[in-house]
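To assess whether the prediction recovers the assembly geometry, we first specified each molecular entity separately, as shown.
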Amino acid sequence: MGLMPALFASVDLGGTNIACAMAGADGPIAAERTVPTASQEGPAAVLERIAALVLELAAETGQAPEGLGMGVPGLVDRASGTVRFLPNFPGQWRGVPAGEALAARLGCPVRLLNDVRTATLGELVYGRGRDMADMVFFALGTGVGGGIVLDGKLRLGPLGAAGELGHQTVAPDGPLCGCGNRGCLETLASGPAIAAEGVRLLLSGQAPALQRLTAGRPGAVTPREMAAAAEAGDAAVREAILRAAGYLGIGVANVVTALHPQLVVLGGGVAAIGPLLLDEVRSTVRRRVRMFPAESVCIERSTLGEKAGIWGGIALAARNGIV
Amino acid sequence: MGLMPALFASVDLGGTNIACAMAGADGPIAAERTVPTASQEGPAAVLERIAALVLELAAETGQAPEGLGMGVPGLVDRASGTVRFLPNFPGQWRGVPAGEALAARLGCPVRLLNDVRTATLGELVYGRGRDMADMVFFALGTGVGGGIVLDGKLRLGPLGAAGELGHQTVAPDGPLCGCGNRGCLETLASGPAIAAEGVRLLLSGQAPALQRLTAGRPGAVTPREMAAAAEAGDAAVREAILRAAGYLGIGVANVVTALHPQLVVLGGGVAAIGPLLLDEVRSTVRRRVRMFPAESVCIERSTLGEKAGIWGGIALAARNGIV
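The predicted structure of the complete assembly is given in tokenized form:
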């Protein structure tokens, strides 16, 4: 009994699903489960669902968690463990004392953090960023989020909102962003931005391979399908991917110029495009960063993929001083 | 005698002049002098001129300096005190052990740093950034440089080149920059970039007030004269200043979005344009930073002006752990 290593719990709260896992501070994952969020039921029901899920995994592993780290899709007040704002959740999530409620229910300390910053920690501690002091993470999904680690510490700023790298302006007169600004990286390199261009090419008859791969259904167009279509010979689709990668390269180059980190990690569904995207980002950064050898910065794909958030929750719970 | 506070020496090595001062760790300046750099004479002669200048001020104050901090317009290896590269100096400045040579001559420790990063320290310790943990500095002159302070520490990166904020891309297809990239902030908001547009307006007859103020001489057009012309009614000159300020606002907004610092300081000759520039930068940042209240970031003009570099050298010499 005394030889059993401590386990920590992690929750990745998403708009669709709640993912939960338990693991030791150095892994491996001892148990995991995913349930629907059903966010329309409101904060109390969602928090109760989270607590029940953690308790279920605790029963399964036979160990109570030493702590819980939870990533949420919005802003939190870390000191008080309060959820400040979840932009895509219905209901009253402003000022919800989620940390306190879960700690009382689970009997262990609970730490909350923005979900992309949590994924950044996962990538730093268990993924591509292992043994790195500096790392910049871009989460390229429905939105574009980010996280910045300097000297081994996540940069959060006074409101936990530092690192919102998807909302850098990369095209001064670019498309309107959901945030209210124009030309944010997110408007040009997010999954929806890339897919929208794929749909245009599909509907205008410029993408025969994409037509075959998606059976002509716009709803089936994703960055991943577009990568396959480019591979299969759709020049216009290839061009669309390279254009998005060029804007992403500007966003990466600007952060690299400002901070000169050792490592930039690209995660999220858009990174699944693979070498076509990655090579163009790298060459853009080499072309645009001229004040020092851009080769001194590694630009790599996430190794944890969609598990970065879950691993980040374990890091958040198990490691002190990382945020 | 024993009651005399320690004095530190500071050198700001420029392409035209060498400025030197001695001061206590908390000021005031006890002595200062400026001599021509005469960089065409090469590293040995320039270093000897610096040493002689410091010894002169030491004689004048009656105290040997406890240390010397020197800002140089290029890249240095801080650990060895070696000058790596001075882009605008003739002669063999690659790999010059300037720190060692000066330390031997002066009998005190010598610290070297890039000149804009040195000015950043000056502004942090003695200027607008006093008591601030986070500060981003833009030096808007012939070039556009920068410096980033996070948690009280200057961010330098492995080669001392972090903080080159003038080389962020703010217009993907913008003008060619001296660094080799296109659309760097420097190509759109440096002194020469702003003055060039002023010259165009002057020569095309669109700037009657600027015409009067400069007696029609293109060589007399500066950002400061342009501010006066805008004030005196030149709408096109006003527009040119606002356009440059808009690009500067994008550069500021991007750093603010990534790092959420408490304070952004604008220094250098371009900042002398005053409220017309500053108000447009602030409104651009408010319009483009939407992920948190942009009002939480102060954007202010340097209080030290051209003395920021000299004060930075004192900070560099007198404060441990700041870099």
